[in-house]
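fyi for ur records
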Amino acid sequence: MAFQQFGIDISKFQKGISFDRIVAEGVQFVILRGAYHLTKDSEFESFYEQAKKKKLPVGVYLYTIATTPQGAREEAEFLINSVLKGKQFELPIYIDIEDERYYSRPKSSNTAVVKAFCEALEAADYFTGVYASTYFFATYLDDSQLKSYTHWVAQWSKQLTYPDAGTVGMWQFGGNTNLLRSNTVAGMVVDQNYMFRDFPSVIKSYGLNGFRPAAPAIKPVAPLSDAGTLKKGDADAGVYLLKQNILLLRNAGVITQGVDDNNIFGDGTETAVKQIQRAAKIKEDGIVGAQTIRAIHTLLNPFIP
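which gave:
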């Protein structure tokens, strides 16, 4: 991954953890439990204040026990009004779906809960995502309906094997069991994560999660007809739009290549297009046609409000 940072997620069970020590031990971001269902985490305010003093990017999760879309919307409204309101979050706001009550329910029902929560957060201008284990995504959710939401995937192992790496922004690689690092940070057992996308840049640029937009949001590449293509040597408005979206994908950590420092589709842009095609598992020919345009939209989707 081109972008990778180390962080932890904590709740009231880590009460008293030293933020001085977690920073000294290399923590670069924190994800805080905002609520369990309709109950605010008792340490949320304290943790938020300490994280902000240390200039650590902050994300939030709600542990859901909702079993209907209406219940999920109620959880989302509670989180917005009682936890998020008046604050700024550099990282996504997640629904944490892992409770045993979902094991006996249909995938369609569980998926509807996640979508209702995420839609409510998006309507309130929050960048939202879903947390679950690789097994839960595969067994208890219809994950094909959730690709538009960034994924925080739990898999306590040496490698992440979730099949669609393009949707994974966070990997929780360890907790009590940790095969990559010590399972303690600042003397406490904590869940530990790698972040693979530069969420703070995306969230701030679009003015989400309590931030004002730094600049007008860049729209995705305008759709092209099946016959329309962009290729090396071209120079028109389509090339300009293409380059803007390549830069968004680079800033998000999806690709590493930038673009040519001019308005022409040159070598740098061609290399970037091939990286996009590789990420989307399509033919790497450096030519932007309908299939590559769709791939760009899919890769950008988690970052477009």
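Residues 107-123 form the longest helix (17 residues). thats all i got for now
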